[in-house]
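Note to self: the last two entries modelled the partners one at a time, which told us nothing about the interface. This time every component goes in together.
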Amino acid sequence: MREINNDSIALVNEKALIIRESIIKMLGESGSGHTGGSLSAADIMACLYFWELNIDPKDPKAAGRDRFVLSKGHAAPVLYATLAEKGFFPDEYLSRLRKLGSPLQGHPDMNKLSGVEASTGSLGQGISWSVGMALAEKMDKTGYRVYALLGDGELQEGMVWEAVMAAGHYHLDNLVAIVDNNSLQIDGRVEKVMGVQPIADKFKAFNWEVLSIDGHNVEQIMAALEKARSIKNRPTVIVAKTLKGKGCSFMEDKAEWHGVAPKKDEVERALAELHATH
Amino acid sequence: MEKQATRDAYGQALVELGHLHDDIVVLDADLSSSTKTAGFGKAFPARFINAGIAEQNMIGMAAGLAAAGKTVFASSFAIFAVGRAFEQVRNSLAYANLNVKVCATHAGLTVGEDGGSHQAVEDIAVMRSVPNMCVVVPADGPSTKAALYRLYQRKGPAYLRLGRPAVPKIYDGEKIDFVIGKGIELRKGKDVTIIACGIMVHKSLEAAKLLAEEGIEAAVIDMHTIKPIDKELIIKQARSTGAILTVEEHNIIGGLGSAVAEVVAENHPVFVERLGIEDIFGQSAGPEELLEHYGLTIQNIIDKIHLLLNKKKELK
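The predicted structure of the combined assembly is written out below.
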């Protein structure tokens, strides 16, 4: 499963398409939620869950399982789509996104849905959880790895840098942070609202290994994840350049699609485009 | 009289618990010599994590450790653990319902000379309004130790409020019957009930002794658990004594007084007076000096009792 070859790349690309379709349908039904930042992370999520992570949906609480934390918790739809495709819960759950009593909360709730490792949504907190999980692994030597997905806008939270400092200080080579660098946040372009560049230099200064890649190129994502395993004595960040709304032309690189769900006609158009480009 | 700071008792109990349970991890934010977690850090360096001066990340890391199966005790001063890291406590600990005990020292005015910026007077109010959160305010060293053992056994998030100065011992450590959510009736009395928490329990007992000399029989309750509050005991005391005084080293808004008044008003309305900090920030001075300046003395308790008993008399 862990080899980088045409078969594994094709499989992950196939899963990424399924995840994107699922995101569009799910958000269309719910009528609210975060579309743009879910689509930008679809390839990364497909790589993690269908190539990288050591997890078993039939044994979701196994002690030695790898942990994934969606620090950019508002991208919950991409997590739900991925977990459903992986088999953590039935696909039918997806039609209940954001509905009363649903396990699919607006932001992930670990106590309501199998496969969710951390209750996130308030930005910056997930990366701290990840540092705590990585520290626990170092104590117990359970052998698992921890992965956190952050937004680039999220890097504006001061707490992120407290966590990044701690991970560097404690030499957490079992921790991988991935920055979904789609360059947009609610109020516009990240660099205009509150610049976070140079991202790579900031992480380097905190003693992290930095890998910069195209976040929609599955082969590059795999290679970066593979490289991260070989880095010892310090954590790795993968700065993944992405496009907000990736896969649906009318959503791509538009801040307006941050927290808006597609209407019925937009759902049809988006699904048609996803099929056509595949 | 033997004295011990609740933070010292906390530090000692942590080490004892550390020997008993491998799953305990302790976090601090560069205050371990003051919060007394340093003893645990020395005894169990592999299970002690210093977050540096970064309380928000300390609470976030605590959540991750708890999600990985650890029982976590995280310490800082009350002003930082509750104030600086509030939203992390709320979302990462309470909302996720994780097994983390936020054990904050230096609560209240008795921080002393560091002044108002460091004296948390609102922490009980804030913590008790957070769903899933248990709030415990022990009165002395032995009950702090007992509280810690009980909190270890009780899964889920909790806030333990501790103080800086040495305070008189009320309990004999071997005999204390400490149950989370159950107030302790330290003194029986038929005329009025004093419900206190933290360092004000001892002052309430002293006040009750003096009141007895003038023929007033005041019951004294150590309401160490503010949440879940012991409704049964409050209602019983409202019925049997018909008047209640609450005493706390905390703002009169939202703390023990409010919690007791809510139960009384809804179940068995009787006169309630609240003695606490009158919605004002503290300042620099010695701990006892500050308690006197802000009206948290034995004499203030006695005066409030007289006021209550007059109200009770007028009603008849």
